[in-house]
Structures are given as C-alpha cells and as structure tokens.
Amino acid sequence: MIEFSAAEIAALTGGRLVGMDPAGPAVTVTSAATDSRESLPGSLFVAKPGEASDGHLHIGSAFARGAVLALAEREVAGPDDVPYPSVVVPDAVLAMGELAAETVRRLRAAGDVTVIGITGSAGKTTTKDLLAGILAEAGPTVAPRGSYNGEVGVPLTVFQATWETRYLVIEMGATKPGHIAYLASLVQPDVGVVLGVGSAHAGEFGGVENIARAKGELFEALAATGTAVINADDERVLAMRSRTGARTAFFTSSDDFAAGGSVVRARNSTTTPGGNPSFTLTFPDGGEHEIVSPLLGLHHTTNLLAAATVAFEVGCPPARIAEGLRSLAAASRWRMERTERADGVTVINDAYNANPESMRAALRTLAELGRGRRRTWAVLGEMLELGESTIEEHDLLGRVVVRLNISKLVCVGPNTRALFNGAVLEGSWGSEAVHVDDVEAAERLLAAELEPGDIVLFKSSNGAGLRFLGDRIAQQPGADSSRNPGPHSRPVPPAAEPDAASAPDASGKASPS
Fold first, then answer.
1. Cβ(61)–Cβ(36) under 8 Å?
2. Is the N end or the C end of the chain the one with fewer CB atoms within 10 Å?
3. DSSP 83
4. Which whole number is the average pLDDT over 346-372?
5. pLDDT tens-digit profile of 262-271?
6. What would the pLDDT profile of 207-258 be if each residue is shown by its tens digit?
7. What is the pLDDT of residue 495?
8. What is the rounded distance in angstroms from the CA atom of residue 336 to the CA atom of residue 443?
9. CATH 3.40.1190.10 in the chain, residues?
10. What percent of the chain lies above the pLDDT cut of 70?
11. Contact 43, 62 (CB under 8 A)
12. Contacts of residue 223, Cβ cutoff 8 Å, sequence gap at least 6
C-alpha cells in the first residue's frame, strides 16, 4: 500500500480524527486490513460491520497486532478509556472506496500503471488468475486474493498496490444494477472484459436482461482511449459493443465471426482425454500457437481466450502469452480442483459457486472424463439466488444429469428436492439418484459407496458448504496427501470454515455474480 497519513485519510473521507495528540508525531499507514488477524505493524484497520461480527469489536486485537489507525463508524476506547486512534466516518465501506480511488489517482500520476477490470457471470476468478500469471512476467502485477470482487474486496486489492505496480487487475462482481459502475468509478479501468452473461443471481437482478445491463456498466465506464474486450460467442456481451466509445477487441471460438476490430480466436477447440482444454490460439498478427491447458473442462476455453486477449491488448508478446496458457493451472481454490486419491478415486471440487450454466459445464466435464469407462458421481447442492426460476432450473438440471448418463446423483439439502425429482422424472431409477437432507448424510453415503476408479464431482453455491465436504472426501483413507499430485491435480489442505470475525466475505461483500 502506498503511504497515507491519518490527516490525509480524514480529508479524503470527510472523517473526524479521534484519539490522537495534535502535537504528537503524524500517524501514517502502509497497509490495510478488514480482518484484525491480518493487521500488520503500521496498518490501517477498517472496522466495518460484517455478516458474522462487527469489526469495531476487533479494533483492540488489530492494534495489538500492530495497527496504528482505525477507519471506523464510531469511537472505540481502549483499556485506558482513551479512544483508539481513528478516523470516524458515517460508512467505513464507502470510505474505503474513497481511499482506493485516491490510491489509483496517485499511482497514475506517479507512473505507468494499467488497470484491468474483469466481470461476467462465471469465470472471473480463473481469468483473473490466468491474466495475473501472464502479466507478472512483464512487470509487477497486483490481482485480487481469491474472489475479492465487491465494494470491500476491490479496495483491498487496490491497497496491495505499490509505487512499483505495473498492472492492477480488478475483479468486479455485483448484486444489483449500479454496483459495477461504482467499482469502475473507483479504479477507472483502462481495459475492461466481460466474460459472459448467465442466470446467476437472476432473482436479485430481476432477470437475465438486467444482469446484462449491469455487466455492460464496465464498458460504459471506459474512456475513449480504453479497450473493451468482448466475448463474441455470447450474444448479450456482443451487443454491449454499442455501449462503449472505447476501442473494441474480440475473442471467439468460432471460425465464422468477423469484426472490424482485433480478434483472438480458438480454432479446433476440444479437450484431451484427461479433460484439459486444447485448441489452436490465433492472434490478430496471424501468429498461431498450439495450447493444451492444465485447467479442467472445455468451458475454460472462454477464460483462456479472455486472458490471452487482454494480455495481447496491453502489449504482451504472443509467444509469452501462449506459454502462460500452457503452464498456468488454477490458482484459486474450489474451481474444478482435481485430486487423485491413492485408491484411484478422483475428486473434482468445483463447489465455490454455482449457476445453471456453470453446473452444466461441470457436469459435461464429468461425463467426458467418465466416457462410459468409469463410474461418475455428481454431488450437487442448491443453486442460490435464482428467484422465481429456482424450482424450474433445479428440475432442468436433474434432467441434464440423466441425459449425460452420470452414474450417480446425490442431491444435498432440503432445497434440492426439485433437482432430485427432475432426475427421477427424466428416467433415473433405483439408487441412481438419491436425496439426502444434509452434508453429513452425503458424507456417510460417499464414505460407504465410493469405489476405486470412481470420479466424484462436488458442485453447489458457496453457501451450501459442499466445498468442505469435497475436501474431506479427498482426504479420506486412500488419499495420500504426501504424494506428488501431478500437473493437473493438487493435495488438499485441511478443510476449515474461515473465521470471518471481521473479514470480508469471499467476494469482498459483493456477490460473485
């Protein structure tokens, strides 16, 4: 984080300084945290109200770890009844945004920094990880931890930047119209990419068309000197080109798409027998590169193309981009994360998030990996925030499982009954489809019935908790955590719910939509 004084923060946020001696030495901060356990010497602790706890209750802990200033919504006194040094503001989250915006302004004024914004209904985190890996070879790069993509997560990402930062990659999520416009106003991206428009959180937005309008806010925020990177394979994204005055660049898996702008293309897109995306990557300069990615699933071709296009547009050499796509595996957890147990069971943990589109993509990958040779298990939890289409979408998904010839379906939780019923009505019989009430019942079932050679997919929205079940199943007897996991799989660390006492949620307060 670039250095700010307490007085500067107060002036930027309209805050009130408390707990400091006006005649004493100036208080300056060099890092920031919303989780008291992550406070460092010289840090700013943002005491925001949280879903699990109020950050104001943890100001003392933050100062004990080295924090020198709090950004808070009320005064909090220490053991000596003297308020902790603080900038008191009406809304700590909005104040974070104001500080982040000033950080970006100062970075731009001082040096050559390129800001890249990424949004879409699925694939943001994977694309962000790929792009950050490629750009890191060209210069100091800052990107979000995990899926920090909301009004808390975006400022936290910005605060990681230093005077040396060359590329600042920002992931942007939304829970309603206006969120992406707000996030873009903080960082003023030079390049914006929209990956796709799906039905995730359609209930909150009031329909897919409203989601498309919200995603397009990123393109509207670009200056005429910026670049809009457009997924030409998604009609709703392609239609957004009329919403920007910026230069346009496209990526596609179609041989037929033609545009006046720059086009990066995947030809002969397929998967290897191991499920890894494979294609010929072509650039506007005519260069071609054969790509086999360590990622799992054909749907990742979109993310690979998006990362390649952005990297090309900011000046990375095509050969370096291609090498990055060949070598970069998933960097964030619970995204098509494959673990090979020593007993021959394959665990695919993709249970960080779910919507109808990503569910179908993961199930297609599972079916392709089985190909009639291995028994396949789909352990599925609820897809949240689908609004009025919840029952219909879960019913349709159950039918998709049957049509893909998935061997076993385990529907976890009381709100997956429509998923189970859809499978039964589509023709699932006997024990092919099972409904269980909770994660514990699913764990008992899998422990008893998984056999060597089985492939088991865990997929649900974050709140269903199946990602932790996937971790436990991967660690059960037969899983050798000391093994060499190979290039496309990984050992799994102990599963534990993060203690979110005063931390942002995984998306940085916004939804992962």
1. yes
2. N
3. B
4. 90
5. 999 999 999 9
6. 778 889 999 999 999 999 999 999 999 999 999 999 999 999 999 999 989 8
7. 32
8. 19
9. 95-327
10. 91
11. yes
12. 188, 190, 245, 246
Q: Bigger pLDDT: 496 or 446?
A: 446
Tokens at 193, concatenated = 């990419």
Rounded distance between C-alpha atoms, residue 29 and residue 165, angstroms? 18
User: What is the pLDDT averaged over residues 153-157?
Assistant: 97
Average pLDDT score over the chain: 88
Tokens representing 125?
Answer: 């985190």
In the chain, CATH 3.40.1390.10 covers: 4-90
Q: Where in the chain is the domain with CATH 3.90.190.20?
A: 337-475
**Number of neighbours of residue 61 by Cβ within 10 angstroms:** 16
Pull the structure tokens for residue 320.
Answer: 């370096």
Beta strands (DSSP E) in 203-256 are 227-231, 247-252
CATH of domain 337-475: 3.90.190.20
The total number of residues shown for the chain amounts to: 513
Output the DSSP codes for 365-413: HHHHHHTTTS-EEEEE-PPP--GGGHHHHHHHHHHHHHHTT-SEEEEES
Amino acid 376 reads: T
Both tokens of 305, joined, read 């193309």
Report the CATH architecture of 95-327. Answer: 3-Layer(aba) Sandwich (3.40)
For residues 163 and 481, give the distance between their C-alpha atoms in angstroms, rounded to a whole number. Answer: 40
Rounded CA gap, 59 and 435, in Å?
A: 45
pLDDT of residue 193: 97
